[in-house]
Structures are given as C-alpha cells and as structure tokens.
C-alpha cells in the first residue's frame, strides 16, 4: 500500500512539472498524435515517449513544415536547419545543444534520428517556435496552437426578415443602418466575438451593387431600390477597423422569401431565367442546382464579392436542396446528366459537389487567403442509414435530405473549414452535442479542413432538453477545448446573444475573459 501511494504521488509531481512527462508504461503501446491549429500532422514517424528521460519526442521537420518553415537537412554533418519568420535554428543529431539565431541553448535530451526524422523534446518545440502546447493524457493528443487566443469566436448576422440587421424601421436611412451595425459590433466584441458572418445574399439579391442580382428589399423595403450607399463596403471597413474578421455569407440557391407570386425586380434571376426556377413547398422558389449555367451564375455573383471587397471569407449555410416536400427537377435530371448517374438523389448530391468544388477553386485562384467554408445541418447521416454515420436519430440529415455530401468536400479539401450546426444540448438523446462534436472531429482528421462548431443560443430558455441554463453553452465551449480539431465557435445569431437570455452575456464574458 505504501509503495502504491508513493507511485501515485510521484506521477502527480511529474505531471505538475512537465505536462508532457507521463507514465511510460501507460503510453508506450499507444500512438501519440500531433495537432497544429486543428490539423492532424500525419507523418511517417509518430511522436513517442523516450523512456530514458521520460520526455515526449516529436518530429521537428513535420511540425516546422506545418508552420510553413523552411527545413534543410545536411546528411554528412547530421545537421538540420529551420528558418521561419526571422528565426534560424540549427542542431546536430546526438548533441544536447542547439543554436537559435546564433545563440546556443541546451536541450533536455539530445536530438535523435529515427527513420530519417530528427526527433526533439516537445518543450523545445513549444518554447522555440512560440507555440502554445496542450497535452491530453486521456487521448494521447498533443495540441499545438500557433496564435493562442485568435481562434474563431463569431456570430451569424442574418439580414433576411431583418432578423439581426438592419431593422425594418431603418428603410432608406443610411445613418440609422450604419449606427445599428456599429452598435451591434460594439456589443458582440464586448462579449469576446472576433468575427461576424454577415448574410449578403439572402435570396438571389444583394447587399452590394451587383451585375447579377438586385438590391435586397431588406435595405429599403423595395427590391432593386438603391440604398444610397454600399452596405458591404461599409461593413467590411467597420469590422476590420476594430480588428474583427468579416465573412460574407451567401444563400446560393434560395430565390425568394415569400410566395411564388411576389414581385421581383427586373434584374432578379426569376425574371431573367424563369426556366431555372423550381417552386417547392409553400411557394418557396429555388434556383435549380441541376442546371450548370445556373450554378455558374451564382459562382460569378459570389466572385464579384471576392474580387471587389476585402472579405476574410466566403460562407455558405445549409440551403442547398429543400429538406422536405416535392422538388420538380426531373427534366433537368434528364437534360443535364453527362455522368449518366442513375439515381436522382445521387445526381442532386453531385450537382452540389460540382458547385462546391468549382466555387472553392474559383475563390482560391483569385485570393488564396480568403477562407471558404460551409455550415451544414449538424447530422450528416444517422447510423441507422449508414454505419459510418453518427449515433443519432435525427429526423432529417444533411446527406439524405439536403443532398449535402459533406464527407466528399472534406476528404477532397474543397473547403477550408466546416461549421456544422450542432444545435442540440448534452441532454438531447436523439442528437447529443458531445456525440456529434466527436463525430465531426473524427471526420476532419487527416484532412486540411478546420472544424468550427455552430451553437444555438436562440434555444436558451426554451423547453427543449438542456436549454434551461446558460451553462449549457459554457459546457459546450469547455468540451470543444478538449478536442484539438475544434478551432472555433460561432453563435446563431447576433440578436440571440444581444437579448441576453439567461444572462448568457455574463457567462460568455467570464469564459472569454473580457
């Protein structure tokens, strides 16, 4: 008993003094993974515990190249040189000293060569390359963060139906709309938000001067009426002025927000190309994703923004095909099916795949730095329909109902990030929050696609299971911290944060330490 107590005490002390010094016996049989800013750095040599010094040894080249550093290996002298952002590091295999910008410093253990990879202690990597490093003993994950505190903390800003901005009372009043936006950003930033995802194309219209779409009616009350200024230009400038990111949010295929009989401006696609329209349940009109020319015009409209504005990203939500009801696209299925896809559902998914792939290529051909991401419905597929799906019992799914083949987008790296709308609590048995976060985290593993999570503050205070306290949101954020794949959190929507249900503002300020 005495020996056992001493062993436990010794392990605890080792953990306190070195977060990556762990029980060798407990870990030598398990693979250690490295995540850099949410991306799994896969290599031909895994990190391992050096039993002689009880330290985690990591492959320096893989980490350095993941950061964009230049690495040079000189076989004759067994010297490796790493150059990044004005820092030059040189070391020789077998030596316990390393030179950083001309100054020698000691290593806790000498660099070693394993399968042609230079392995160095984890602490050296974190201190020399300026990384924040977290060790998860339960999962054996090393999480490295290059810019701590700069993870995405955002809010969706819906313009459709005046949900978030601008108000219906501001029609045609530039000064009022400007002040409303400034006030909204002030409040969001005070809660810790550093990004906004603003809806600039609610329904085949525009919050900017466009050659392909009329001015949105949500600016003036009349579709096509010039508001007297460029709202998108103003929003981008104002958002950047305070150091926040601006992501332009597009609804690509939705063509109206009322009935099929509503009046459209002459520039609207329903007037110019009525043959592209499909009217679904409730009179909702969609631009048919199965028509190649229609898809291309939507891409051209989005590229107007990419070329003309300093946006940080292009964002799409889950409005692809409607999730229920009849969608009459049989004629397009017959006319535009060069791949001879036999199944209508597979053809629809292929249409969306082609759209996502082409749009991503178009964006990055013009501006590589612009992030392209999508926020699909939170359940890809239930396990009852696909054994690789999530352990959920959702009534609709992204793949089967909205024809969003998200897995293909991720595996082909067509997008920069995925932001599933996980709008359920830990207590909701049909689609538990933790079950879905873990599923999506596994899904992005091995890709270059980052994972952000969409949260539902709009449910706070409702009767749905788990939403009777603001602590639900805090618990979700804390859970995300344990998953290195999760690199951001975005809340739907701005108005639901600002109205402060169950004192969520106080909870977020405490969590984000603002």
Topology:
Blueprint: H1 2-17, H2 24-27, E1 33-36, E2 39-40, E3 48-50, E4 55-59, H3 60-66, E5 70-74, E6 79-84, E7 87-92, E8 97-100, E9 103-106, E10 112-114, E11 117-121, H4 122-128, E12 132-136, E13 141-145, E14 152-157, H5 174-190, E15 195-201, H6 217-220, H7 231-241, E16 245-250, H8 269-272, E17 277-279, E18 285-287, H9 292-308, E19 313-316, H10 330-335, H11 344-366, E20 371-374, H12 406-411, E21 417-418, H13 433-444, E22 450-455, H14 471-481, E23 486-491, H15 494-498, H16 504-512
Parallel strand pairs: 1-13, 14-15, 14-23, 15-16, 16-19, 19-20, 20-21, 21-22, 22-23
Antiparallel strand pairs: 1-2, 3-4, 4-11, 5-6, 6-7, 7-8, 8-9, 10-11, 12-13, 17-18
Summarize the structure.
By secondary structure, this protein is α/β, with parallel strands linked by helices.
Number of separate strands: 23
> What CATH architecture of the largest domain do you see?
Alpha-Beta Barrel
| Total individual domains | 2
User: What is the 3D form?
Assistant: globular
Give the structural class: alpha/beta
CATH structural class of the largest domain: Alpha Beta
CATH superfamily grouping of the largest domain = Glycosidases
Strand order of the largest sheet: 14-15-16-19-20-21-22-23
**Could you name the CATH topology of the largest domain?**
TIM Barrel
Strand content: 15-25%
Radius of gyration: 26 Å
Biggest pleated-sheet summary: 8 strands, parallel, barrel
Tell me the span between the first and last alpha carbons: 47 Å
List the uncertain runs.
Answer: 1-29
The tally of helices reads 16
Query: Helix coverage percent of residues?
Result: 25-40%
Mean pLDDT: 91
């Amino acid at each position: 008993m005495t020996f056992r107590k001493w062993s436990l005490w010794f392990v605890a002390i080792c953990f306190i003094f070195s977060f990556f010094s762990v029980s060798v016996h407990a870990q030598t049989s398990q693979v250690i993974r490295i995540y850099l800013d949410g991306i799994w750095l896969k290599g031909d040599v895994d990190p391992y515990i050096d039993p002689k010094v009880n330290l985690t040894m990591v492959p320096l080249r893989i980490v350095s190249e993941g950061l964009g550093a230049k690495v040079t290996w000189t076989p004759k002298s067994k010297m490796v040189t790493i150059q990044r952002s004005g820092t030059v590091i040189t070391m020789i295999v077998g030596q316990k000293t390393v030179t950083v910008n001309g100054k020698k410093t000691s290593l806790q253990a000498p660099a070693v060569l394993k399968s042609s990879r230079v392995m160095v202690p984890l602490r050296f990597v974190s201190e020399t390359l300026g990384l924040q490093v977290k060790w998860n003993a339960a999962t054996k994950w090393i999480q490295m963060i290059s810019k701590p505190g700069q993870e995405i903390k955002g809010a969706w800003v819906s313009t459709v139906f005046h949900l978030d901005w601008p108000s219906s009372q501001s029609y045609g009043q530039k000064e009022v709309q400007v002040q409303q936006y400034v006030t909204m950003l002030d409040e969001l930033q005070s809660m810790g938000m550093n990004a906004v995802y603003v809806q600039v194309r609610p329904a085949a219209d525009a919050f900017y001067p466009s050659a392909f779409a009329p001015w949105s009616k949500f600016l003036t009350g009349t579709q096509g009426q010039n508001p007297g200024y460029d709202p998108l230009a103003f929003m981008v400038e104002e958002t950047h002025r305070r150091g926040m990111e601006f992501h332009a949010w597009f609804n690509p295929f939705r063509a109206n927000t009322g009935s099929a009989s509503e009046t459209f401006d002459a520039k609207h696609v329903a007037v110019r190309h009525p043959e592209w329209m499909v009217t679904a349940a409730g009179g909702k009109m969609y631009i048919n994703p199965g028509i190649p020319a229609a898809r291309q015009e939507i891409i051209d409209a989005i590229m107007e923004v990419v070329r003309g504005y300093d946006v940080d990203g292009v964002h799409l939500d889950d409005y692809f095909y409607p999730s229920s009801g009849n969608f009459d696209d049989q004629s397009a299925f017959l006319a535009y099916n060069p791949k001879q896809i036999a199944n209508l559902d597979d053809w629809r998914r292929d249409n969306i795949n082609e759209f996502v792939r082409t749009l991503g290529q178009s964006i990055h051909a013009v501006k590589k730095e612009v992030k392209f991401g999508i926020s699909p419905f939170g359940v890809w597929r239930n396990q009852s329909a696909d054994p690789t799906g999530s352990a959920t019992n959702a009534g609709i799914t992204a793949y089967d109902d909205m024809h969003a083949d998200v897995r293909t987008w991720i595996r082909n790296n067509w997008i920069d990030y995925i932001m599933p709308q996980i709008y359920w609590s830990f207590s909701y048995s049909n689609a538990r929050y933790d079950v879905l976060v873990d599923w999506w985290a596994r899904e992005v593993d091995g890709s270059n696609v980052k994972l952000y999570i969409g949260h539902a503050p709009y449910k706070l205070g409702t009767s749905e299971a788990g939403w009777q306290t603001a602590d639900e949101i805090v618990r979700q954020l804390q859970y995300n911290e344990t998953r290195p794949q999760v690199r951001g959190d975005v809340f739907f929507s701005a108005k639901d944060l600002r109205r402060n249900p169950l004192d969520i503002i106080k909870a977020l300020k405490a969590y984000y330490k603002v």
